[in-house]
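Long-time lurker. I teach an intro course on protein structure, and each term I like to show students one example going from raw sequence to a predicted 3D structure in token notation. This year I'd like something fresh instead of my usual example. Would anyone be willing to generate the tokens for the chain below so I can use it in lecture? Attribution to the forum is fine with me.
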Amino acid sequence: MTIEIRAATESDVPIVFRMIQALAEYERMSHRVTATEEGLRAALFGARPVAEVALAYAAGEPVGVAVFYPTFSTFAGRAGLYLEDLFVEPAWRRHGVGRKLLEHVARLAGDRGCHGLSWSVLGWNESAIRFYRSLGAEPVEDWSVFRLSGEPLARLARSE
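-- Reply from a regular --
Happy to contribute to a lecture. Here you go:
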């Protein structure tokens, strides 16, 4: 089966949203999804898009998604790409779809002169970790991810 990867268009927002919801369910985080199709449309295809989306198709049906955006490394003095989400429909896992999506994003990173491609993976997702290691990816052991959101973010923003 041939797998086709293409950039998502605005008309693909319902597909992207459905896959985000499926990813959240897989990651046991459905309760954290507050995105809407309208919000995604504005974020991905509005006046200032903040991320890009690649969709994987097999037999004309969408079977996977990669959501990514640029980052910047002051140490390298160059841009990078951050892979926010990589999701493959359960029936299509272990058929090369995830690899094709990663190849696509890696190719974009190379074409754009990026210093690297980064992403996060849940510690319990051993199959994904094995897959990423098989590609040559290595965990970043010396860093911890922090997030400021909700009321703590608002409180800091109001500080003077």
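Some talking points for your students: The two ends are 58 Å apart (CA to CA). Strands lie at 3-7, 52-58, 61-73, 78-88, 117-119.
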